[in-house]
Design goal:
This protein is mostly helical. 85% of the residues lie in helices and 0% in strands.
Length: 157
C-alpha cells in the first residue's frame, strides 16, 4: 500500500470517527431530554393519583363515596381502590417499582373503564382511557427495571 493510500484511509477513518461522535452527541442530549420528560410525566401521574384520585377516597369525601355506594362496593371498596392508587403513585417515583406501578395503575384504569361503561353508562369512560396511554408508555419505557425488581424479590425470598 502506498503512503498516500494509507494517509487517505487514516483520514477517512478519522472523519468517520468524528462524524459518529458528532452524531452521538445530539442522540445523547435527545436521550437525556426524553428521560427527563418521562420522569416529569411520572411525577405528574404520581401527583394526580395521590392527590386528585386517592386522597378523596381515603378521606371518604362525598364525591368519592357516592359512586362506590352506587356500584355496591361501599366504603370498603373505596378505601381499597384509594390505597391501590396511592401505592401506585408512590411506586411511580421509586425506580425499581416504576414499571410495575404503571402496569398496576393501568390495570386499575382498565377496570375503571369497564365500570364506567357498565355501571355509569359511559359518562366518564374517556378519563381512564386517557390515563391509560401515559401509564402504558411508562410501563414500557421503564420495563428494564422489572429485571432489577425480580432480582431483589428472589434475593429476599
Amino acid at each position: 500500500m502506498s503512503q498516500t493510500t494509507t494517509r487517505a484511509t487514516t483520514t477517512a477513518a478519522s472523519a468517520a470517527a468524528s462524524t459518529s461522535t458528532v452524531a452521538a452527541e445530539p442522540a445523547t442530549a435527545r436521550g437525556r431530554r426524553a428521560r427527563l420528560a418521562l420522569r416529569g410525566l411520572q411525577v405528574l401521574l404520581a401527583l394526580f393519583y395521590a392527590v386528585a384520585s386517592a386522597l378523596p377516597k381515603l378521606i371518604a369525601h362525598s364525591s368519592a363515596l357516592e359512586p362506590f355506594d352506587e356500584m355496591g362496593w361501599g366504603s370498603t371498596g373505596m378505601y381499597v381502590i384509594g390505597v391501590l392508587e396511592l401505592a401506585g403513585a408512590i411506586g411511580l417515583l421509586v425506580p425499581v417499582l416504576q414499571s410495575a406501578a404503571a402496569t398496576g395503575l393501568a390495570a386499575l384504569m382498565v377496570g375503571a373503564f369497564v365500570v364506567q361503561i357498565t355501571v355509569f353508562d359511559g359518562e366518564y369512560a374517556a378519563t381512564p382511557l386517557i390515563l391509560l396511554v401515559p401509564l402504558v408508555l411508562v410501563a414500557w419505557a421503564r420495563r428494564a427495571h422489572n429485571a432489577d425488581l425480580l432480582r431483589l424479590l428472589r434475593r429476599q425470598g
